[in-house]
Amino acid sequence: MSALATKLRQLRADAGQTSSIASARSPITVLPERSAAKSKGTSPSTHKTLSPDLRRLLQRHAQLKRGPAYLASNDRDVPGIELSPGLRYTEANVDWLAPPDIVDAAFARMESVHHRRLLHFDTETTGLAGGTGTRAFMIGAADWHDGRFRIRQLTITSMAAETAMLRTFASWLADDTVLVSYNGKCYDSPLLKTRYRLARLPDPLTGLGHLDLLHPVRRHWKGQWENCRLATAERELLGVVREDDLPGSEAPAAWLTYLRGGSARNLRRVLAHNNQDLKSLAGVLLYMARLPHQ
Amino acid sequence: MNALPDRYHAADELVLRSPGDGRSLAQRLNKRYGARITGAFVLPAQEGRYAPLPPDLPPALAQALRSRGVNQLYSHQAEAWTATQTGAHVAVATPTASGKSLCYTLPVISAAMQQHAKALYLFPTKALAQDQVAELLELNNAGELGVKAFTFDGDTPGDARQAIRLHGDIVVSNPDMLHQAILPHHTKWAQFFENLRYVVIDEVHTYRGVFGSHVANVIRRLKRVCAFYGVTPQFILCSATIGNPQQHAEALIEDAVTAIVESGAPAGEKHVLLWNPPVVNPDLGLRASARSQTNRIARLAIKSGLKTLVFAQSRSMVEVLTKYLKDVFDHDPRKPPRIRAYRGGYLPKERRAAERDMRAGSVDGIVSTSALELGVDIGSLDVVVLNGYPGSVAATWQRFGRAGRRQQSALGVLVASSDPLDQYLVRHPEFFQGATPEHARIQPDQPLILLDHIRCAAFELPFAGEEMFGNEVATPWLDVLGEEGVLHREGDRWEWIADSYPAIAVSLRAVADGNFVVVDRTNGRQTIIAEVDYSAAPVTLYEGAIHMIQSVPYQVERLDWDGRKAYVTRTAVDYYTDAIDYTKLKVLDCFDSAGAGRGQAHHGEVHVVRRVPGYKKIRFYTHENIGYGPVNLPDQELHTTAVWWQLSQAVLASAFEDRQQALDGFLGAAYALHIVATVAVMAEARDLQKSVGSGDGAWFVSADLSGRGQLRGSDGQPTALAPDAPFTPTVYLYDAFPGGIGQSEPLFQRREDLVAQSITLIERCDCRAGCPGCVGPILAADEHHGEMDVQTPKALALRVLALLVAL
Hints:
- The structure holds two protein chains of two kinds.
- Chain A is α+β, with helices and mostly antiparallel strands.
- Chain A has two domains: 1-29, no CATH class; 81-290, Nucleotidyltransferase, domain 5 (2-Layer Sandwich).
- Helices cover 33% and strands 17% of the residues of chain A.
- In chain A, strands 1-2-7-6-5-8-9 form a seven-stranded mixed sheet, sandwiched between helices. Chain A has a two-stranded antiparallel ribbon with strand order 3-4.
- In chain A, helix 6 packs across helix 8 and helix 7 (251-259) runs antiparallel to helix 8 (265-290).
- Chain B is α/β, with parallel strands linked by helices.
- The relative contact order of chain B is 0.09.
- In chain B, the strands form eight sheets. In chain B, strands 29, 30, 31, 32, 33, 34, 35 and 36 form an eight-stranded antiparallel sheet that branches.
- In chain B, helix 12 (290-303) packs across helix 13 (315-329), helix 22 (659-680) crosses helix 25 and helix 24 (751-764) runs antiparallel to helix 25.
- At the A-B interface, helix 1, helix 2, helix 4 and helix 7 of A face helix 11, helix 18, strand 21, helix 19 and strand 23 of B.
């Protein structure tokens, strides 16, 4: 453990902060902070030099720190083709449901829409905390294309590829696209808008029609089902039973493990999970469109 | 103190028969109570200095000002306008009620009207934010300026937030909201940031110490986010009177500011009295309560037709004093009340009503906590009475500043409580006249605070390259966060990767989230009634402790150390508890040393171990020890900075008959130094701690029941030194904050002054042998020493300090 990290851990323990990392106490011989904060503020944008103590400590720290090797795995296979460095693309065309030309969206209090305009989408993210620190590492989108259900998935294997992923996804959207999602209005869409903003790209989502199935499902079945999650809806309405499904909550860890050089196995399971989510989205949509009007 | 009517009549002869002013009341008090008045001085009246409304003000704004009766500006308001128009950052430090808010209102509204520029206001409290919005709306309505101002705080409903983000010209918030809600969601505020022209930070004197160090880092993050949106907002900061307004403002925003410190607002003459309650027991040094004196002065003032504001230190004291005054002035329920209380914990509606009544002049007496210390507008007052010293000279002046009319003299009275700090100050009137209020200090690069904010900043925007954060290259800190697993490095970029929202875990008002909550379980309740710092918990919340909250005793029944909770119930006991607290210090590194008389003074890093093996039960008033209880808590460890003084064995051998005497002297000296140092660095007494021990941590000294020094070994057990063992007693003052918060260095710089002041403190104390006002409580037996006895704790402490005086 580096000296600065040790030192900080000690200070935090002193302050009563509990840390998940066991604090390893060791004698302190180096003091990082003592002269760092003297008399500042009078000169704008000064480039302060580090105190000798801190510099020494950081040098040692840098020597100690080499990438974590314990995660390294030989299973690094992420499916799909590489559109650009770090951006993988998979496409599957499957026979999945036969949509009517015009999908009745009255159940969602929206106008009827031609199925060609529908784009089902679902993101997999690094977490649920929200704010600017949460990102999507996978965007899945599906539509009926040439009579078949086309499932396209973008996965980034490096942080730097995010911008390319966002650009690609934007290229799939047309002015008359109607998005179909499950809780996308509150979750996926704002999250992507934040990512477009951070990437300094125009936001392609604002202004598009958006059919968020969560709310209509809730209106119909709240209280009847144990909950109104997509997994419940697909089971109740479509009879879908998933095998070897990676729970959505484990998706962040799956990607992180891969990112840090670990196995891609769970990342592939995330792709499968996302794939099924998109199919279920379409299934739930068509099921609800066929419900008698209330 | 009770409200006996005959007591009231005793002083009625002093009531001013004709409409009086502060001066005449001061004269009468002086005449009658001269012995209680330890200091009296007068601040001369000041003529107003004015300037015309600036010609470059938008005409509609000028018209709105005129319609509100503002036909000209005070000179400082005009200076602020000129300075802001040059693009400079501006710091305005003028007294309370000098019209500071116009200094930022004018540039902000002008920019909003002319360039659709946005402004962010930060106030330390929600109440001030709401006041400010009300004021802005009044001005806006007066001129139909079309400027939209909103508060944005924890009470803002979710559906209103979107509208505020998009349409607010002026968003009025607080640093905590900026830290936890705005910056981590800055993309939602994109339009706001893209047009952000001004950041107004009012009451910056409250941003000092830990809080200020956090706020400085929040400002770093704000500037970083602003840079992302391509803007460099101009800062306008306002402060009450502090010793270093410009330096403090520059430390907060880390940029040069133009300081405006000369107020152009007219002010009447102001009289100030320092008041020490009379001694009622000279042996114990016991004085009459501050409460009774405060009540008496306030009553006289109100009866003399003077609008009076009383500041009390706690909410319960506000209620007590209000009751006493209401008993006199509000006994007729058919008449509107003449006395009102004002404090936190009231509903906003109630507070607004109180403020309105005060402004309208229909209230004659107000009793308040520090809630009225800041800029809430309550109109003009004649007399301010402080029931106890507010903790800093700056805050004292700020409270006194509440009294003052343009034409008439005002009076401020500081009534000292029995607290050692109060007693120190009231006996050193020159301290007040010295005219330099405290310096506000911050330490934004305190390692724990810095790491917390680099963490939050990395969440907001990735770090790239050799990016600076404040004065530091961020990289080593990012490495630490990378090891922790919250950041991922790719090339030269550090990206947030964890599924967490770091700002939630960082409180600006504390160094760490280790605070304990005190839960009242009386009669099946489950109410949180207090919060206690992690560092104070072991000495105040052990099981069996009597925990006083606003002088109501609660007993701690259970302490859940890991859950950070203490469960208490109301109790009625005639004793309080006092933790037996052993502190052991070990010097890890010495940064700086200097001679101090025949000894040495040092400044450096120390390792502190604190153990609480038990507690004493002490009866109220008599202070006799009526029992013990054991405490079973883990040792507290702390790495921090300290200043310390040492005398060599040879010097001590020649000055003291035996080692015991030297130890007693060191204990008393530590007590006095701690009082003086607390004042010197504007610290809370608990943030600065004292200890006496050997220089190497081999042994330490604590006061035993008689107030005499007991030597203890490193295991905490009483011990004795072998006659040939080395003997270098050391008195330490340390920063009770992991890593230090920058208090020890200024103390080291002022080391000679501290020793000299400690000597004065002890010499001037009225007690005979020692008391809580100078060298700490002592045993009754010690009081019977002769006046000139050389063995008293007082005399021994003086002897130690004399050896440390610079030659």
